[in-house]
Design a protein that fits this description.
single chain; alpha/beta; Fumarate Reductase Iron-sulfur Protein, Chain B, domain 2; FAD/NAD(P)-binding domain; 3 domains; five-stranded parallel beta sheet; 18 helices; about 35% helix
Length: about 475
């Protein structure tokens, strides 16, 4: 008999839209066992190749089928220090699940029949958390004389630090904000990644001896040269891409037009949804527009709905996207959740101009209809505006979520650091070393805006290069 995929339970849209509590419920033991039993235990598992950090997916799922959840947890931790995070936010449908043999070859994302690897990873990760399992670490004493500076406490920085610390290397992480976690903290709402999960995973690094230094901007507080002078043998740059992109259209400077960075940072990092308990206000409108089609756009739309609900407003949030739903880079799950919660979508719409009132507040977005042409450099069909198709959309708040760019503080302060036309740091793709000897980089600061697990994959590569360089020292 063909086994039916087990979907994780979710809080109903009506119940969840009024708060910031987690939406997706973890597998029960029974559900995890049922889903794990669907795995074919392929002789040559393609799913492992679909994981940027190379988790032995076949083996950890096998351990679950044997009810050996501790071994499943430890097997994942061999390659990934943060299973409870990745099990929640990894875009598995584009990576490991897409590579699953149960997905039809050539599909752009995983089929419903593919094993729900991410939910099983979350189950194992949460088991480790709930049972206070500590991963055995064999530290190599000969490397304890080395000290490494990691810049940024987002997914790349945390991953690199964990790999180095497990080898006995002393690691200091420098974070510009007052809290650790980078984009995991300021960019992802707690209804997708609860803070206790993030804190637990970061605390694991504390147990490994990693030292966190917050409110420290490398490139301003200290330069790269000064860090070397302080005795760091190598430096890893995991800065992320924290500078917002804008549309570059008339009226974009009107009040109540937010960058997605400011909007989500106010809510996620600074708890604006609990104002005045937390002293961080955030505006919310009665007619909210979100411009963009990625995960941050979905997060912003779902946050806006919750803010409207908390303030007793009618729910009215619309996502405006210049391509069709098929081209949206957001996770299918996040799009589905947004729709369930009441977010509306306008596809094939190109923003042209904002208009406001005499007080300088945004009131309308003037748009053009589009059609799809030939594929562009992203591989997606390019939107082409249609003449004489202009129309207006009412709005009193708009969030621009059209991508992020590299932060320029460190780059501008380090002339010898080679960058490309997009201001991303250029690295040797094999070693992840930059143009400065002993300085490595990974994550969004290298490849542009990407996924958390991709950032971790680059960070692991850099960490191994750093470790190898110490072996040659």
């Amino acid at each position: 008999m063909k086994k039916i995929p087990i979907k994780a339970q979710e809080v109903s849209p009506a119940a969840r839209v009024g708060n910031f509590q987690e939406v997706v419920t973890a597998y029960s033991e029974e559900e995890a066992l049922s889903e794990a039993s669907r795995c074919l235990q392929c002789k040559e598992p393609l799913c492992i190749g679909g994981c940027p950090v190379g988790i032995d997916i076949k083996k950890f799922i096998y351990h679950i089928t044997q009810k050996d959840y501790a071994s499943a947890y430890f097997k994942i931790k061999e390659k990934n220090n943060f299973p409870s995070i990745c099990g929640r936010v990894c875009p598995a449908e584009y990576q490991c699940r897409k590579a699953c043999v149960l997905t039809k070859r050539g599909s752009s994302f995983a089929s419903e029949q593919a094993i729900n690897i991410h939910f099983l990873e979350r189950f194992a990760g949460d088991y480790g958390k709930n049972n206070d399992l500590d991963t055995p670490v064999k530290k190599e004493n000969q490397l304890s004389k080395f000290k490494v500076a990691v810049v940024g406490s987002g997914p790349a920085g945390l991953c690199c630090a964990g790999e180095l610390a497990r080898k006995g290397i002393k690691v200091d992480i420098f974070e510009s904000l007052h809290k650790t976690g980078g984009v995991l903290r300021y960019g992802i709402p707690p209804f997708r990644l609860p803070w206790d999960i993030l804190d637990f995973e970061i605390d694991y690094l504390n147990k490994l001896g990693v030292n966190f230094i917050t409110n420290f901007i490398v490139g301003k507080t200290n330069s790269i040269k000064e860090l070397f002078e302080q005795g760091y043998a190598s430096i890893f740059l995991g800065l992320g891409a924290g500078v917002p992109s804008f549309l570059g259209i008339k009226g974009e400077n009107l009040c109540n037009i937010y960058s997605v960075n400011e909007f989500l940072t106010r809510v996620n990092l600074m708890s604006a949804y609990k104002f005045p308990e937390f002293h961080t206000p955030v505006n919310i409108g009665r007619k909210v527009l979100i411009v963009g089609g990625g995960n941050t756009a979905m997060d912003a739309a779902r946050v806006a709905l919750r803010l409207q609900k908390i303030k007793g407003m009618a729910l009215d949030v619309t996502v405006v996207y210049r391509r069709t739903e098929a081209e949206m880079p957001a996770r299918r799950l996040e799009i589905e959740h947004a729709k369930e919660e009441g977010v509306k979508f306008e596809f094939l719409v190109q923003p042209k101009e904002f208009s406001g009132d005499d007080q300088g507040l945004v009131r309308k977005l003037i748009c053009l209809r589009s059609r799809l042409g030939e594929p562009d450099s992203s591989g997606r069909r390019r939107p082409i505006t249609i003449e004489a198709s202009e129309f207006e959309v009412d709005c009193d708040l708009c969030v621009i979520a059209v991508g992020l760019k590299a932060n320029q503080v460190l780059i501008n302060a380090t002339a010898e650091l080679e960058i490309n036309k997009d201001s991303d740091i250029i690295v040797d793709p094999a070693s992840m070393e930059t143009s400065i000897k002993g300085v490595y980089a990974g994550g969004d600061i290298v490849g542009g805006e990407g996924t958390i697990i991709e950032a971790m994959g680059m960070a692991k590569r850099a960490a191994h290069s750093i470790i190898d360089s110490f072996g040659q020292a």
